[in-house]
Automatic annotation (TrEMBL):
PANTHER family: CONSERVED HYPOTHETICAL ALANINE AND LEUCINE RICH PROTEIN. It comes from the Bacteria. Residues 142-264 form the DUF2520 domain. This is DUF2520 domain-containing protein. Residues 7-124 form the Putative oxidoreductase/dehydrogenase Rossmann-like domain.
Length: 286
């Protein structure tokens, strides 16, 4: 058997292949997309993992021999790729077919049921920009799993072997969970883009890194409510009004400030740092 095989040797496919190999699992290699010759991502896969990355037309026996076929392709390609594997007769009973989308459930893999394969969605709650760093980044990361019961049980074993934290998620909760993941990751970077533009300091966003790191350290030790400081937490309506006045000529920054300001009022209210009058005034302002 070929153990794990990855269709889509991109960031997550390569990262998982590296991490699973390092944890002692057998990884057979990767497969490029159908109708595509060798790609940059397949070359990089082989460079990093020293495992083969085959073109689709050469991949039949690798996929037939796999215990687990991971479709680490863009979300919209998961179902068409799974359907092609079913139509070509490359999958069989006893295999697990998995995807790593955060927003979509294992229902994207419904078609593999027709050949008796099991379906799994396994999402690493981590951002992978450089697959070489993935094994380190997966340590301590939460992985959410959902799908056929035996496949989820096996996925929990893999995740523990990677040093991750396995968590079961219901299919219907995935979209909301993934929206939260996007806010925790991509939105933070977008926010730093706004910060950079707004402050106009010569050292740009980097000037704010110690502040961001300070807030993260407080979050780690105290949690969001107790870590919260700033004008809203102090009920300082005059300062918030001043901020809103200067943001009028930057509609994106104003929108971000108002949206996050409302969330801050709600957190400060939960913390109990605002009087009823201060909360009402801030809510009217924002
Ligand atoms: N990156 C992250 O931080 C992250 C984190 C958690 C989950 N995920 C999920 O992991 C999955 C893969 O994401 P990624 O960031 O690893 O993507 P990626 O780096 O862009 O890699 C995608 C891979 O799929 C191949 N591919 C593209 N279109 C295809 C198609 N139509 N049919 C077959 N293969 C195709 C690409 O090959 P080519 O080289 O030919 O383009 C590439 O090897 C997605 O479901 C994503 O939501 C990503």
């Amino acid at each position: 058997m070929a153990g794990f095989v990855f269709v889509g040797p991109g960031r997550v496919g390569t990262g998982l292949a590296l991490a699973l190999s390092a944890a002692g699992y057998q990884v057979g290699g990767a497969v490029s997309r159908p109708n595509q010759s060798v790609t940059r991502s397949s070359n990089r896969f082989t460079e990093l993992t020293h495992l083969p990355a085959l073109q689709w037309m050469d991949a039949r026996s690798l996929i037939e021999q796999a215990d687990v076929v991971f479709l680490t392709v863009p979300d919209q390609a998961v179902t068409p790729v799974a359907q092609t594997l079913v139509d070509d007769g490359w999958l069989h009973r006893g295999q697990i077919v998995a995807h790593t989308s955060g927003a979509h459930s294992s229902a994207l893999l419904q078609c593999v049921e027709s050949v008796g394969a099991q379906k799994l969605s396994l999402h690493p709650l981590q951002t992978i920009a450089d697959p070489a760093k993935a094994p380190l980044l997966f340590t301590g990361a939460t992985f959410t799993a959902e799908g056929d019961e035996d496949a989820v049980t096996k996925a929990f074993e893999w995740v523990r072997a990677l040093g991750g934290i396995p968590v079961r998620l219901r299919a219907e909760d995935k979209a909301k969970y993934h929206a939260a993941a996007v806010l925790a990751s991509n939105a933070v970077l977008a926010l730093m883009g706004v910060v950079d533009e707004l402050a106009g300091l010569p050292n740009g966003w980097a000037a704010f890194l110690p502040l961001v790191e300070g807030a993260l350290n407080n979050l780690r030790t105290l949690g969001p409510k107790e870590a919260l400081t700033g004008p809203i937490e102090r009920g300082d309506i005059v300062t918030v009004q001043k901020h809103l006045d200067v943001l009028r000529d930057n509609p994106t920054a104003l929108l971000v400030y108002v949206a996050l300001g409302r969330a801050t009022v709600s957190l400060a209210a939960q913390k109990g740092s605002l009087s009823g009058a201060q909360r009402d005034a801030l809510e009217r302002l924002l």
